[in-house]
């Protein structure tokens, strides 16, 4: 049997007993690796977003981010979009909601938060999004089962995130500036969690590249009026290495590459399990801060990383071959 035939047989239950665990394990490992790739790339986007905070207005940064992303994916996806245009029309409302949550709102809120919030704080707040992913996935259509092991992993990882957010001092949580950047990030977290849960129910007949291209296009069009207002009120921005470089990163890598790998990960392992890997976000941001900003990690941060990594291992749980 070919790989595709094996996977199809596993899904239908007609595969030999020896094939099922191997195919399921391979799909899970692939999904977790893709989720990790997206998480690492998105961690870098918080640094890039922070780098743009005093040079490019948020709406303009997000608009050009998606224009760049569209230019990156269009040559490979437009022929497929044309062939599936009838499906796009049929599922337009689903695509519209996905575009609004994952493209227009989420990224605008993140860039708005970047005006007053550090990259590390943004990454730590976003690390709480898997909790909402699990809840949205659990109570949505065809809800995913959480299970005791996954719930335990989520609790351990959440403890690590909260401790990291409070820098070892529980009272520090109450001093978080929720009136500005923190509040924007909480809203962004909710949008991203909703998008991730929604992607789980993407119509099977819509291919991944078509879904990406169409949502990128719709999201950009939704941003166009706000971009025009921002350009009129705030003026444009100067082109230079310090603006073009971060925009290329968030447009090509954080948008085209990361969204494709994230959506594929959700298709393979579900939003809840992919969301568990997303708990690595603060760890990745901390490492990037050390490498790029020379911000050193102390004992409390190391403890939090251990908790987060342990929680991810528990919650992501690769199927064991023993479960035959």
From TrEMBL:
Keywords: Cell membrane, Membrane, Transmembrane, Transmembrane helix. SUPFAM superfamilies: Multidrug resistance efflux transporter EmrE (SSF103481). Residues 30-164, 180-315 form the EamA domain. It is found in: Cell membrane. It holds the Pfam family EamA. The chain crosses the membrane at residues 27-51, 63-82, 94-113, 119-136, 148-166, 178-198, 210-228, 248-269, 276-293, 299-318. Its main location: membrane. Belongs to the EamA transporter family. This is DMT family transporter.
């Amino acid at each position: 049997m070919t790989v595709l035939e094996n996977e199809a047989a596993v899904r239908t239950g007609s595969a030999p007993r020896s094939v099922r665990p191997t195919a399921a394990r391979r799909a899970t490992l692939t999904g977790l690796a893709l989720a990790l790739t997206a998480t690492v790339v998105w961690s870098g986007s918080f640094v890039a977003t922070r780098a743009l905070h005093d040079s490019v207005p948020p709406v303009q940064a997000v608009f050009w981010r998606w224009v760049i992303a569209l230019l990156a994916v269009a040559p490979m996806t437009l022929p497929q979009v044309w062939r599936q245009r009838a499906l796009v029309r049929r599922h337009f409302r689903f695509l519209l909601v996905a575009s609004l949550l994952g493209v227009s709102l989420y990224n605008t809120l993140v860039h708005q938060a970047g005006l007053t919030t550090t990259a590390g704080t943004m990454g730590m707040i976003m690390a709480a999004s898997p909790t909402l992913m699990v809840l949205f996935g659990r109570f949505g259509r065809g809800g995913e089962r959480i299970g005791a092991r996954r719930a335990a992993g989520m609790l351990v990882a959440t403890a690590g995130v909260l401790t990291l957010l409070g820098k070892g001092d529980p009272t520090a949580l109450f001093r978080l500036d929720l009136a500005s950047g923190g509040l924007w990030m909480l809203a962004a977290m909710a949008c991203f969690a909703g998008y991730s849960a929604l992607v789980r129910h993407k119509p099977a007949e819509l291919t991944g590249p078509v879904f990406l291209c169409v949502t990128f296009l719709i999201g950009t069009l939704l941003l166009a009026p706000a971009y025009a207002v921002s350009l009129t009120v705030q003026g444009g921005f100067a082109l230079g290495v310090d603006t073009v470089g971060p925009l290329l990163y968030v447009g090509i890598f954080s948008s085209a590459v990361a969204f494709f790998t994230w959506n594929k990960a959700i298709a393979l392992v579900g939003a809840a399990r992919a969301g568990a890997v997303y708990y690595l976000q603060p760890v990745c941001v901390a490492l990037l801060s050390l490498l790029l900003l020379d911000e050193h990690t102390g004992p409390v941060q190391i403890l939090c990383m251990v908790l987060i990594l342990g929680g991810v291992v528990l919650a992501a749980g690769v199927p064991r071959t023993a479960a035959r």
